[in-house]
Amino acid sequence: MNVKHVLGISGGKDSAALAIYLKDRHPELDIEYYSCDTGKELDETYALVEKLNSYLGKKIKEVVAVKPKEETPYETTFDHFLAEYGGYLPSSTARWCTKKLKLEPFETYIGDDLTISYVGIRGDEEREGYISKKQNVQSIFPFRKNIWSEDVVRDTLNNRNISQIVSYYKKLSSENTNTEALKIANTPISLEFTLKQKLNTLLDINIKLFNNVVFEYLKTTDYPVGKLDEFPLIDNDDILVLEDIYRTLDDSGVGRPEYYNKKAYQVEIGGELKTGYYSRSRSGCFFCFYQQKIEWVWLYENHPELYLKAKEYEKEGYTWMEQETLEELSQPDRIKAIKKEHYTRTQRLSKKRKKTTWKDEIIEAEGMGCASCFI
Ligand code: SF4
After folding, report:
1. Which of 66, 127, 272, 307 has the smallest count of CB within 10 Å of its CB?
2. Residues 245 and 275 grouped into a single domain
3. Which pLDDT tens digit goes with each residue over 157-187?
4. Ligand 1 centroid to residue 76 C-alpha, Å
5. What mean pLDDT comes out for the span 216-228?
6. Ligand 1 centroid to 88 CA: how many Å?
7. Are residues 12 and 139 in the same domain?
8. How much distance in Å is there from the Cα of 98 to the middle of ligand 1?
9. Do residues 181 and 295 both lie within one domain?
């Protein structure tokens, strides 16, 4: 049966690294790469997409919700929908932008084709990626210890399937793992032994064996992976964390998205001039409301023309942040206060953890926000 393999390039480091990793490690997978361009990304994001195009040797398909026409008064797809929403700016509680500019175009693009969607959530992250509600789409997370989505795990390890799963373990496991794995596979999920515990124990015993068992089970379902004759990811137990992502990007020559590079800023604290470092923590629209205050300051000082454009969107009481306009945030005293707060916080964290906090800072910032835009 024909199953499509797709990978969304968000412009962030993790999806870029996943594309590189799968091309190098699993060239047998015929993957289509796509990008849902909002028309409001940073130039650094477009530069990364260009470099990836050359590395992958394939054009990354541009998936857009509405094609700008000559006669349309709207500059981009974002502006088109903003007008439809009457100027109501998106926010974390009214995130119409992700729905209209990312999720709906993706679902239109894949249509009714059976599709496996590869998602770059790393092995050191807790969050679950976007799971399409469409029955014909299955998400796979190659960087994680558990490559399967929550719904697949819940279904496979459901108590009603115990005898079926045990039979696959008997068929697929060696003498060594047999006893231990069978005991766990046979143990029902309960308040004392949760789904998460069962999953983690089975993965700890043998990741590849668990994946092969799930694959056998999926063959009895309508999940797209179950329609494949072979699926190489089930015999891959790599787990990739932040350092691996950077290494993959650097080794490939594609490099890290430019906006992650830390830049120095200076701020006076207690009569002394201190040097702090700031950068953008993720991809996405230049005006994204998930930005931290220090990232707005970074935008103001490093891309003043984009800051100005973001400011022009704030009208009739609509603002990107609660309780503060971009006009207010760009006042010299306010910028100084934000830098002071950022410098003091990073110093405190650095002392507490007795090591550099670059990794913690990134992971903390990634915790918020939208998997479709920032992976
Ligand atoms: S990057 Fe931010 S503003 Fe842009 S579509 Fe995603 S959530 Fe919305």
Report:
1. 272
2. no
3. 999 999 999 999 999 987 666 788 999 999 9
4. 14
5. 97
6. 14
7. yes
8. 6
9. no
Residue at 351: amino acid letter: K
pLDDT tens digits along 20-72:
999 999 999 999 999 988 889 998 888 999 999 999 998 999 888 776 665 55
Res 266: pLDDT? 95
Closest approach atom of ligand 1 to CA 284: 1
Residue identifier of the C-alpha nearest atom 6 of ligand 1: 373
DSSP 226: G
Question: Tens of pLDDT along 248-271?
Answer: 999 999 999 888 889 999 999 999
Say if ligand 1 is within 6 A of residue 373 CB: yes
HSE of 103, CA atoms in CB hemisphere, 13 A: 15
Q: DSSP string covering 45-98, please?
A: HHHHHHHHHHHHTSPPEE--SS---TT-S-SSHHHHHHHHTTT----SSS-HHH
For ligand 1, whether the C-beta of 290 sits within 6 Å is: yes
Buried b (16+ CB within 10 A) or exposed e, 89-120: bbbeeebebbebbbbebbeebbeeebbbbbbb
**Does residue 160 share a domain with residue 121?**
no
Residue 359 has pLDDT above 70, yes or no: no
Report whether residue 284 contacts ligand 1, using a CB cutoff of 6 Å: yes
Range of the domain at 64: 4-148+238-252
In a shared domain, residues 247 and 120 = yes
38 lines ligand 1 (CB under 6 A): yes
